[in-house]
Amino acid sequence: AKRQSGGSEMARLPVHLISATKFPVSREVIWAEIRKRGTFTIREISGDTNINTETIRTYVQGLERAGYIKRIGDDESAQFRTLIYQLTRDVGVDAPRVRRDGTEVTQGAARDQMWRTMKMIGEFTARDLAVHASTEATPVNEIDAKDYVKHLAQAGYLAIVQPSKPGTLATYRFLKSKNTGPRSPQIQRVRQVFDPNLGKVVWSEEPRP
User: Fold this and answer.
1) What is 123-157 written as a DSSP string?
2) What pLDDT digit, counting tens, does each position of 83-139 carry?
3) Quick one: pLDDT at residue 107?
């Protein structure tokens, strides 16, 4: 297949929304652009997102090997050989978590499940959340649930309905106004909460004096 190159009609995403050093965030943005275009080149995705081409190429290789996209030809109008890809398996807004070799990345899946579940059940304890969010493939343990709800409460996503007492877990309520999108807020190692739906840090622990 051949095609003529042309200027992109898509607006560039602001640089502050892109973090090429945080690949999970970049992956979501790349996938969103692939879904918008349907047919694309790596250079086009880079131009639309400000993400460097090597980061995109790594993800595209994984998507191809996992069967989400396929090569359909070359753009012979380009100075250098430019592969053209086509989306063949659209699984929705959640970006496939794949490595370069096409194998699935499971890290972060438990928090994705908790994020979806808390929006459905509304009011819960960490234990309730762990039970309802667990699947056979990705079980959620209570300790991880406690840590996640603690950070989301600090970031303003959850209201404390009943504080914890000796022998009793705290009860939380998900605030519908904080349903920012399908992607789960991330708890980063620097003690802050990053919401990939908003593209920004929504809570950060103040440094101790």
Assistant:
1) EE-HHHHHHHH--SSS---HHHHHHHHHHHHHTTS
2) 999 999 999 888 898 999 999 887 788 999 999 999 999 999 999 999 999 998 889
3) 72
Structure tokens at 15: 């640089």
Q: What does pTM read for this prediction? A: 0.61
- Looking at this protein, which amino acid is placed at residue 38? G
Write the CB contacts of 57 (distance below 8 Å, at least 6 apart in sequence): 42
User: Environment class of residue 64 by beta-carbon count within 10 Å: exposed (0-12), middle (13-18) or buried (19+)?
Assistant: middle
Contacts of the segment 143-149: beta carbons below 8 A, 24+ positions apart:
144/110, 144/111, 145/114, 147/187, 148/111, 148/114, 148/187, 149/118
C-alpha dihedral sign at 62, 63, 66, 67: negative
Question: Residue 202 belongs to what H/E stretch?
Answer: strand 200-204
Alpha-carbon distance values, 1 to 39, 41, 82 (Å): 12, 13, 12
Angstrom distance (rounded) from CA 69 to CA 52: 20
| Percentage of residues of the chain with pLDDT beyond 90 | 63
